[in-house]
Amino acid sequence: MTILIIILVILVFGLACLTLIPALPIVPAQFLIILIFGSLTSFSVISGWEVVIFGFLAALSLIVDYSAGAVGARLGGAHRWSILSGVIGGIFGSILLPPFGGFIGIPLFVSISELMIKRSPKKLMHTASFSFLGAVAGVMLNGFLAFTTAVLFLIFVF
């Protein structure tokens, strides 16, 4: 049993290190590992409430993944259609060019949308830059969530 716990701790922390690569759902993967661990141990090591906490962190991570670029675009003054375009661009970019497609797709789709709305080039660059910075901030926040998940796992197990 001790070997299983050590292997899972290494796996959870190893996944946390991979969160610096965007578009990889690391925190939900950590949650699945913890859920499997809980079921293998009949939730004697980790309680059901602790699993709920990990599930909340995984859901929060997914929300951050898909909204950070849009929030950045909004803070940059993008039109609401451009914000929606940025979300779609993040999804398409992540699918077509993993793992860094979100960094390209979000500002690209925001820029195209801003061009179609006929915004000035200065405003276009401003909103595209903010959407890119939002995506970068999202990756950093997901890194924090991944390490929080790993540390909480250690606290709850030991």
How many beta strands in the DSSP annotation?
A: 0
Terminal CA distance reads 13 Å
Mean pLDDT: 86
Helix/strand/pairing class, anyone? mainly alpha
Q: Which stretches are low in confidence, meaning pLDDT under 50 for 5 or more residues running?
A: none
Largest beta-sheet characterization: none
Number of helical runs? Answer: 6
Helix content estimate: over 70%
Number of domains: 1
* Principal-axis shape: elongated
Radius of gyration: 18 Å
SSE series:
HHHHHH
Sheet-strand content, in percent, reads under 5%
Overview of the structural elements:
α4 (80-96) packs antiparallel against α5 (101-116) and α5 (101-116) packs antiparallel against α6 (121-157). The protein has 158 residues and is mainly alpha-helical. It is 82% helix and 0% strand. The longest helix has 37 residues, at 121-157.
Quick structural summary:
With 158 residues, the protein is mainly α. It is 82% helix and 0% strand.
